[in-house]
Design goal:
By secondary structure, this protein is an alpha+beta fold. Among the domains are: 64 residues, Laminin (Ribbon); 112 residues, 2-Layer Sandwich (Beta Polymerase, domain 2). The chain contains five helices and 18 strands.
Length: 285
Amino acid sequence: MKNNIYFLNRLLLIPLLFSLLLPFYSFAQSLAPIPDVGPGVCVSNCPDDTPTTTSCPNNCSGHGFCSRSLGGCSCDAGWSGSDCSINLVTFCPNSCSDNGFCTSNGECICDPGYSGNDCSTLCPNKCSGHGTCMDGNCICDAEWSGSSDCSISKEEFNTMLQDALSMSTVPDMTYMTTYDCDDFASDLERELDGQGYDASFTLIWRHDGMNNIGHAVTDVHPTGGGVIFIEPQTGMIIELDENMDGVVGFRDSTHSPATMLTEGMSEIEVYMDRAAAEVTGAPID
């Protein structure tokens, strides 16, 4: 008899324990994340303003799910648009030729080394990973150069250029009234052009407050940008950054008869060649 009473009391405790634990269970459930389900149907713990019927446009076209956290469609990979109806594989020109990513506005973002509206244009050697392909040509990153593929570092380029200068016969020429600095600069420019360098002709006007001294040098334009200046009478690379700011200021194909300094106490004017400088009215011997 005593055992039966004990067992009965145990049974009566179960509802009591359940009633005590139920609030904690409900609280834990309220903290659980509300799942994103589709298409557009909230199945549990839905806020009052969440519809319990399909709410995303076109049921996300079967290419995504309706996300309550996003407030719209979350599209599958390769699909876009408010209703996931835009096939990014076919939406862009030529599907970006499998060489890029198609954006939701129908434009291709090309992989490195490719360019064009459909990413079908391949740059030489994909710019060696050191440049941007644009219309089939490499725009080299800073510190990289090369005739077309950005494969040569700045240090290597300078070494190759100095080697070419050491073989030049122009610095061996004799300075005279009939063969002066602009003749040196012009001849070295033509020589370097013939070796594949993008060389041109530079005039320098130095002002010391009393005198204006003119001089001509040769310059080379690496594909990575910038200008390398060369003293043609010695065949040596020279530094014209008088302000020491890492950039040489110059005018491009323009001559100013007035004193308009571009770098320190100097005016530096870069031209395609000596003839181009003469066309602007720059005084040439």
